[in-house]
Design a protein that fits this description.
The protein is an alpha/beta fold. It folds into 2 domains: about 5-65, Roll (2,3-Dihydroxybiphenyl 1,2-Dioxygenase, domain 1), CATH 3.10.180.10; about 75-128, 2,3-Dihydroxybiphenyl 1,2-Dioxygenase, domain 1, CATH 3.10.180.10. Helices cover about 20% and strands about 25% of the residues. The protein has 2 helices and 7 strands, in the order βαβββαβββ. The protein has helices at about 20-30, 85-95, and strands at about 10-15, 45-50, 55-60, 75, 95-100, 110-115, 120-125. The strands form 2 sheets. Strands 4-7-6-5 form a 4-stranded mixed β-sheet, covered by helices on one side. A hairpin with a 7-residue loop joins strand 2 (about 45-50) and strand 3 (about 55-60).
């Protein structure tokens, strides 16, 4: 139930040990959304703002490496591409395939990792 007293999701934060700008570039290309105009290489954080008003993606440098599987991750649904095409595109951008859970009926998902090891899934798209 939505009302004015309930919080909304403003930002999804990604920790990284490398350059937040570089990780932001990966997600910018994958999602087709630009990094903030004032972001530059070497900054301690980078930001992608959703022009449609959805949550901001924030990439922040942290000292500790990732130690385990993400407890929260993004599930992406391709538009204008099949799941296989979207997975191939993500791999070309620098993602790594972790597992393929595609079912014979076309359902399921593919688990990928971004260049920092953060998992995300690609579900079936509009075209399959």
């Amino acid at each position: 139930m939505t009302n004015a007293l309930n919080p909304s999701i403003r930002t999804l934060t990604f920790d990284c040990t490398g350059d937040p700008y570089e990780l932001g570039l990966f997600w910018s290309e994958l999602l087709g959304r630009p990094l903030a105009d004032d972001d530059k290489p070497g900054d301690p954080e980078a930001v992608i703002v959703d022009p449609d008003g959805g949550p901001t993606l924030l990439f922040v440098r942290v000292p500790e490496a990732k130690a385990a599987k993400n407890r929260v991750h993004l599930d992406l649904q391709p538009h204008g591409r099949t799941r296989a095409q979207e997975v191939e595109r993500a791999l070309e951008l620098g993602a790594t395939k972790v597992a393929d859970h595609t079912r014979p009926d076309g359902g399921g998902w593919v688990v990928l990792e971004d260049p920092e090891g953060n998992e995300f899934c690609v579900e079936r798209g509009e075209l399959g």
